[in-house]
Write a structure and sequence with these properties.
single chain, mainly alpha, two-stranded antiparallel ribbon, 2 strands, about 5% strand, Na_symporter_ssu, Sodium symporter small subunit domain-containing protein
Length: about 90
């Protein structure tokens, strides 16, 4: 019983670490790149758009979708490792 509790605490700790890492990445892309560093990034171009503008308008959305897929993959892997998967 105690071993199972420790196992679930470790599972939750690693889940929170994955979540915080991915949220930090999303914060960096959407807020830091899209707002704070926009002037510096606008010196570069991506697909004909200024890079800072691109991050603010489209890049943060693309990154958010990619982060969702990464989260699903990492959580499925973690679920299998701790034998709490659904399939």
């Amino acid at each position: 019983m105690e071993n199972n509790k420790q196992k679930m605490q470790e599972y939750w700790r690693r889940n929170v670490r994955i979540l915080l890492t991915l949220l930090g990445l999303w914060f960096a892309v959407s807020y830091v790149f899209g707002i704070l560093l926009v002037e510096e990034l606008n010196q570069f171009h991506l697909g004909g758009f200024k890079l800072g503008f691109w991050f603010a308008q489209q890049g943060s959305i693309y990154c958010f979708v990619i982060i969702i897929f990464v989260y699903v993959i990492l959580m499925n892997k973690l679920d299998r490792e701790f034998d709490v998967h659904e399939d």
